[in-house]
Amino acid sequence: MTRFIIWRLALMIPTLLLISIISFVVIQLPPGDIVTSTLDELLADGMEASEEQIAALRAMYHLDAPMPVRYLRWLGGMLRGDFGYSVQHQQPVSELIGERIALTVVVALSSLLLTWALALPTGILTAVKQYSPLDYAATVLAMLGMAVPNFMLALLVMWGAFTWFGVSIGGLFSPAYVDAPWSVARVLDLLKHLWVPMVVLGVGGTAGMVRIMRANLLDELRKPYVTTARAKGMRYWRVVLKYPVRIAVNPFISGIGVVLPMLFSGDAIVGVVLGLPTTGPLLLDALMNQDMYLAGSFIMILSALSVLGVLISDVALAMLDPRIRYD
Amino acid sequence: MNRTADEITARNPDAAASGGARADDDSVLTVENLEVRFDTEEGELSAVDDVSFAMRRGRILAIVGESGCGKSVTSYAILRLIQKPGRITGGTITFRPRGRPPVAITDLAENAEALRRLRGGDISMIFQEPMTALSPVHTVGNQIVEAILLHQDVSQADARARTVEMLGKVGIPAPERRIDQYPFEMSGGMRQRVVIAMALVCNPEILIADEPTTALDVTIQAQVMGLMKSLQRDLDTSVLLITHDLGVVAQLADDVCVMYLGRIVEQGTVRQVIHTPRHPYTIALLKSLPSLALKKARLPSIAGSVPALSARPPGCPFHPRCPHARHGVCDVGNPPPSEHLGAGHYAACLRVEEVARSEGRMPDVECRMPNAGTAKDNS
Lengths: 327, 379
Known about the structure:
The structure holds two protein chains of two kinds. Chain A is an all-alpha fold. Chain A has a domain of 188 residues: MetI-like fold (Orthogonal Bundle). Chain A contains 14 helices and two strands; from the N terminus they run H-H-H-H-E-E-H-H-H-H-H-H-H-H-H-H. In chain A, helix 11 crosses helix 12 and helix 12 packs antiparallel against helix 13. Chain A starts with a helix and ends with a helix. The model of chain A has no long low-confidence stretch (mean pLDDT 81). An eight-stranded mixed β-sheet of chain B has the order 6-7-8-3-9-10-12-11, with helices on both faces. A four-stranded antiparallel β-sheet of chain B has the order 2-1-4-5. In chain B, strand 11 and strand 12 form a beta hairpin. Chain B has a domain of 224 residues: 3-Layer(aba) Sandwich (Rossmann fold). Chain B is α/β, with parallel strands linked by helices. Chain B starts with a helix and ends in a 21-residue tail after the last helix. Chains A and B meet through helix 9 of A and helix 4 and helix 5 of B.
């Protein structure tokens, strides 16, 4: 097991290097850079910049160095914890995104937990009671959940909260706590706001997970080992929970690896709609303004987290299923 | 057509005295007029139809037949393990344990405590596929210990010790190490031994073995069969053996039921059924067995194929493939009733006397009873 984890950790290094190259290249692809977009803004405001000023800016950001050099400089900085400087926000990237990443993890994990709490029992019930009214009801709801876009759901929840409870629930904090230092009161305030993105993001994922769980479990319920266990004299539900469910959750757990990045990136639009101080809206903004250091570091950190998510799900799978462990 | 065991015994008083596969005092399990149906898109299909037999205590009863004849369904019905869309639609199954009152299994509620005590405790089952009959993600020890703890009030440590002992008994080397292995670390033969150990660990009165060796290599088959026979003798277990292999039947079984399209066409002791078969289907099955004495070029086979359950022929279900079938006799009306040929030997054939005469060259006729074919079923 230890060997398995070490091996998987070692595999992460080339993966992350590859991701770093790709994210660097992708960010370089669009024509123009931070200086040209700054110039555009200046021009739009009716100001002009001299050739010298432009050259000075370009030198400051090392924009004239060859691409591999710029890449290595960026990579080296990241390894030292220096994620560069956001031109747009006039702040070091690390300061800018530190809290946002933490909040994104909180939002993503809480909605993942909600997804599990809803999808596991619903999936099990719909499989065991296949073709029952409950199964049909859950199927219809799941289809609805999959068909309704998350941002639409976000708008509906906000509208509902506003009309019925008279509260505006955008963001993760009340205005008083937005810039306040961390305290117990701020955490409580966060929890008060957290349920909206949790529900919006979690419910969307639940629909798909219910279908996966139902399909997996239906396959497993027909396996001979279920009959063997029943022939032993076990209670039906004990059989279901100990044997087929245990095996049916496998793809469910390997799903964490996929769900985490989906939650991280997929929340951009929801984040914008709900005004969340998470990574999504900032990333979108950085990409639109070609704030390269910000966007690149962002993508890098999110990718690292996703790779970590896959690792976690793989380790969990190996612990759950001896057949994977021994391969 | 519905007869009870009492009627059968009353009509055939000699059946009880002379053994065979019909009810008597020494029965550990009786099945009477069992009927199992499946709801399908083509309508209700009858998978088991009017099946009656009794298991003698401490003996091996084999149910033989081709795939789809209803033999497995019959065995699943005994533990009430038939799953939707199938269900038992008629008949009774009675378990007669030693020193306790009989249990009408078919009367028990689906989730009755008594039914759970029966399963794995008094009656246990081993299945065809050792590869999939065990959970792949639990150790074999975990799965056997669980069976003990379900039925016996012992500690985890005692259950584990008993498991090691049982694994040794079924011939698994180094059982104290093997107990913590997963099924995928074992060969097919080893897994089937584990399954047998799991089934016998609670000392059941009845062991149902559903094609226990079909999925195994031939050499392993012989080992596992030998093991089952010796365990059955040692533990004094009554065995219901489901198989399509008449060779296995001849070696192991005491009594035989031959099934075709959901009905028992012939039953009796192994001697009666193998040596003096009276139903054309049994005769055809036996003729299609390869034997060393038979040096002819081609092995005879049964003409045609088994019809689908949805296309059950009228009259005798076997008549389209039967060389003795008579137009206007065998292909009309209800399936022929079981005729008692004496000494507990039954065959469901309207032309049983003619068949006996024309099949005179079957090796063995000495068991033929004077009253063979005379006990007409008038019900």
